[in-house]
Design brief:
- By secondary structure, this protein is an alpha+beta fold.
- The protein has one domain: Pleckstrin-homology domain (PH domain)/Phosphotyrosine-binding domain (PTB) (PH-domain like).
- The protein contains four helices and eight strands.
């Protein structure tokens, strides 16, 4: 089996929107196997030392280590994603657009929804509107799902 590869990540902070006023801050990472939300953590000497030890480790090992650092982290295998779209949430006084992922978590027969808003500097937002960034994420997630399905059928 090939090593896991990062296909896309949001280098600035991403807000995971659980409820209109409950936000978690972290990074969103798309790999060729899963979509991962890594909650922002406070770095400590132990974490820094372990990261140095993982410098030459496979990406999957590094991601699994980062995933284990916080209980607010979550991941969804690409095979569990039922759909990706642009969504909105109301944050008075204006509605905001976000990336909405519909997925099955394996424990329930109904699907679940996770929404993410990307935090970007105003200058970047003017040069490349948020909608363009979201369309790129949707395209890349859908492409990764198709590639993963093609590998499974081989």
């Amino acid at each position: 089996m090939e090593a896991e590869k990062i296909l896309k990540e949001h280098r600035r902070w991403t807000q995971w929107i659980e409820k209109p006023r409950l936000l978690k801050l972290g990074n969103l990472v798309l790999t060729d196997r899963r979509l991962i939300f890594l909650h922002k953590i406070q770095s400590s000497p132990d974490v820094k030392e372990n990261i140095k030890k993982l410098a030459d480790a496979p990406m999957e090992t590094v991601l699994n280590y980062a995933f284990a650092l916080d209980r607010n982290n979550f991941q969804m295998p690409l095979s569990s994603i039922a759909g990706v779209r642009i969504g909105t949430f109301n944050w008075n006084p204006f509605p905001h657009i976000c990336l909405t992922v519909v997925y099955f978590d394996g424990r329930q027969t109904t699907n679940r929804v996770a929404s993410f808003q990307f935090i970007r500097p105003i200058k970047q937002t003017i040069l490349k509107p948020q909608i363009v960034v979201l369309i790129g994420w949707i395209r890349d997630i859908n492409h990764a799902i198709k590639d993963a399905e093609a590998l499974e059928t081989k």
